[in-house]
Amino acid sequence: MTRWLRWMLAWAAALLLCGAGAVLAPVPDARADTPSAGLGRVIADLGVVVPAEGKSGFSFDGRYYGYLVRLPDGGCAVHVYDLQARAQVPLTHTLDACFLPRWAAHADTLWWQVGIARPDLTAWAWDAASAQVSQLATDAQVQVALNLSADGRYLAFAGSSDSHPSPVAGDYGLNWYVFDRTTGVSLPLSHAGLSVTFRSWAPVGHHFVASTHVPASSGFGSCFGSGSSCGAVSPDSHGWSWSGDGTALLGGAGTVAFSVVYDYTDDALTPIPRGTGNISYAYFLGSTADRLLAQTKVGGVLWDRRTGSLHTIASTEPPRPSPDGRFVLYQDTAPDAYRSYDVTTGRSQPATFRSSHDQRLSGNAWTADSASYLATGPGGCSSLRQWSPITNTVSLYGPPGLQSCYLALAPELGPSSSSSGRFKNVYVTHPHQLSLGDPYLVDLRRHVLVPMTGEPLEWAPAGPDVLAVRTDDTGTSERVLLVDPTPVPDVDDQPRWSAATPANGSTFRVVPGQRAQLQIGASDLQGTPVNLYFRWRTAAGVPVRSAAVGWTCDRQRLAAGATQARCTYAPTSPRTEVRDVDVWAVNYLTGAQSDTRSYRVEVGT
């Protein structure tokens, strides 16, 4: 996350501050002589490194971490840490590499460029399989090195080659080539009479898309290639985005965006069915190209490319699909009400989820494993809640106190969640605080907030849960720790509900003189004491300090630390009122929480 983005988020957090929030323990100070992130255990202390600002970091499988170390002469050296071996990888080179160290998207290959301008600019790569460093595009002069293909085999670059000159001059004075690391040959992408500008590699394999231009004309289009050659050409298409498996592209034709799909499996360019209406944006669902979700004036429209079927998701705001493409969370017609659509079964049901509407700033986002959705609200940013689509249950974090506000970053704004989906980053801001806030991890399995020191950089995208944490940031250098946040010992200390009558989500409708009863209880597998907490909210979701008039609870401590409460609501004065009450159980010793039960109380005259 860039320093500019951190400043902007801090400014946004100041605008989001609201009255009630969570009372949390102060963030512990890290001792200079003992590297610590304030939680879990440090796997590796990488020492003082050059600020990465989005470059390098973890390999696609989470096994390696690449970074830069400043040399005494002001240059940089590439370093790689092997998380599986828990050791530095010996790189036998003395290269100045202060620019663009990056991993291939789907291979343990790290590449970088040395120098800033031709003829001194060269490209290099380290492959984990061979443990060797090699120079790329040795048969050409590199002007701009763009990126490796996802499988690490091909390098796309702008430059020139005496043995394979470009047949036409490229746009903006750049002639685009692809270097094949297997053959050692760099070939131009342009054809006779057609200038080709490389755009992007597929996230898997080595398909690519490029833009085309007929010299001395206004004809622009696209071509779809693989490896080092561009094959099929579409003269009137643009704006492509990839499916997760790299087999298809979604783009526009003519003046209409998000209107066609190109499929590499059959080289077919297929229009999106007109039944979807005017599309404001669209994207592939999950990791394949089978399904596509489009946003139109009537809401979301799900297109199954295998069957050709269309399913309308009537939502008043953009639907929120899970990363695996199975669930789509969308807003119902009632305020703050949501529904969940299961793509695999075709069933839709009311969701227990509630939230604020500003999903970008409040960071409403799915976890990486699609098992949970974390959001703030409703009623402002003082509430943090986790919704689980499989069980359709909500877990409320807190209990909220005064003068604090949650900020959970959306994935595109910063580190989001661990690969297992167990941990997610959030910040807690306070009144008049100019920084982004105090960083915390949410343990989504134990339902607890854990304070941390330093700034989270990124999660390993696969493998064990490992978080890169920045400490001692001076602007020109920083100390980076690789941290496993899993608690030691890692026991199942989450309370379980032993009784809940009536069912979660029930509504009590009473008039003065009548009464409604709630019986609820919880226990812990470890036999530690469990306490019950109640929180009242207005119909708009805003937390209130006191229970509704006429509410009483008789609590009893049972054997092995279990707790049971028998609550009665018996209003006496004539009035009309709607209140919600949330109930959750907390392990007295560890703070682990159950999921949250929610009930609505409606009082009529």
Automatic annotation (TrEMBL):
Keywords noted in UniProt: Signal
> Source organism's superkingdom?
Bacteria
Query: Keyword Signal on this protein?
Result: yes
Q: SUPFAM superfamilies in the record, alphabetically?
A: Tricorn protease domain 2
Q: Which residues form the signal peptide?
A: 1-25
Name assigned to this protein: WD40-like Beta Propeller Repeat
